[in-house]
Amino acid sequence: MICVSIGRGRHRSMIAEARHVAEQGAQLVELRLDYIRRAVNIKRLLANRRCPIIATCRREEDGGKWTASDADRLTLLRQAIAEGVDYVDLEEDVAGQIPRYGKTKRIVSYHNFVETPEDVQSIHDRMCTKDPDIVKIATLAHHPHDNLRLLRLIENSSVPTVAFCMGEQGILSRLLSGRFGAPFTYATFHEDRALAPGQLSYRQMTEMYRYTNISKSTVIYGVVADPVAHSLSPVIHNAAFQDSGLDMVYIPFRVPLDELGSFLGDCPELGIKGLSVTIPHKGEIMQFLDQVDTDAATIGACNTAVFNGQQISGYNTDHQAAVDSLLLAHTSSGATPLKGKTSLILGAGGAASSVAYGLTQLGSDVVITSRNEERSNALAERFNCRTVPWEERQNIRAGVLINTTPIGMHPKVDESPYEKRHIDRGMVVFDTVYNPEQTLLIKYAREQNCRVITGVDMFIRQAELQFRHFTGQEAPKEVMRNQLKRSTGAARY
Ligand code: NAP
To answer: Could you report the per-residue pLDDT of 315-330, keeping only the tens digit for each?
Structure first.
């Protein structure tokens, strides 16, 4: 069950939003009385309610807006109980001052906006002595492992417990708390109006993550990155799982580089069966893999990890996606279309490695150029390629031009790594940047009537291949592509 938290300054707005989410299917609404700017009229707020209500009035120290006296606050909560509110939220330190009355259920809560304390189990034990119907614990995550500590609390408690971590690192506990036995999780009315850090909106919870369908049998996948907010993988993989009728969900995991090992250790207990791996973890994850396929081992980077119990297998679908995209653009050019053809790769990072490996496998004469000569040389040496100084890149006569730098990516969409006048008609131009799809470089190439491969082509292909590793099934490619197009440039998660 999802509880939608509503914090508005006016009674009218609060009532309207509560009605709206109830009509959308919400089964529980939290009214944040501390947000109301005038004297709170609890009777008015509770009249004609469409679904059960939690009355909450948070002090500033607990992350709320209540600035009047605590005595007034407790009076307001007692009034809510007297009016028959369905649930009342009582912080641990005041729970003893407000006795049980009528049918109102008691949520005894603890908030910590600084950390997830070491003694969270003893905090929970203490809260269980305050006559709760539900215990609620919300703490700030500094480490991915904090999530599992709170989820274990839920699982091991005899009192129904809602526990989750706040902050971007805590999103997984908000989404998986029901799977561990929490009676509900919190969502906000709108993604732009989170009442606590890391809170997702009701729409995101229901449409993208299908929270109410997540159960013990649901298989968990996700993307591990830092940062992760920009990732479009959750949108496309969740759309693909839904379209394929699979009991699977795909979640963003923000994991700092030095905590990757600890996170991978938690994955089996969290129910995670597979990961998309992206910046900065593609190289780092190699040391934790039990099996690595030849492509990932040769490139030295893995973008897909699959769990089989404690064993982790690693793959590189970026490489195959780049090769497939290049071959697709050359379907009319014979069996070995890139053999002997000069390809110029702009950039010498992770994507460049995948592309350079793929192109050398296809027999192309590969030239690498980047603003960092040392990096260019190192990459060229690995795959037996040539290099050219960055300033001279436009003097090369190449049949295939591939941009693997972020130049042209949102928001700097008016930049191109290559000038239009140097793009020849016969060239194939491949831009790995996918946000936006129509980069300035792609626009120049189209204007010169070149064949183009966009970053979206490659991104969808690598995601399709990941989907196959995750599920053993073919991916619904068009669903993924349409979802990506719809989401490009929009809010993430
Ligand atoms: P990376 O490892 O950081 O490499 C980026 C490369 O671009 C480096 O050589 C870097 O040079 C160079 N660079 C960065 N900013 C530059 C600038 N302003 N001018 C010139 N060179 C610049 O990153 P990556 O993982 O390879 O990703 C690079 C791009 O590929 C991103 O835009 C990403 O979205 C795209 N990509 C797309 C897909 C897909 O499926 N479509 C998959 C993977 C990556 P320095 O070493 O000097 O910083």
So the answer is: 999 999 999 999 988 8
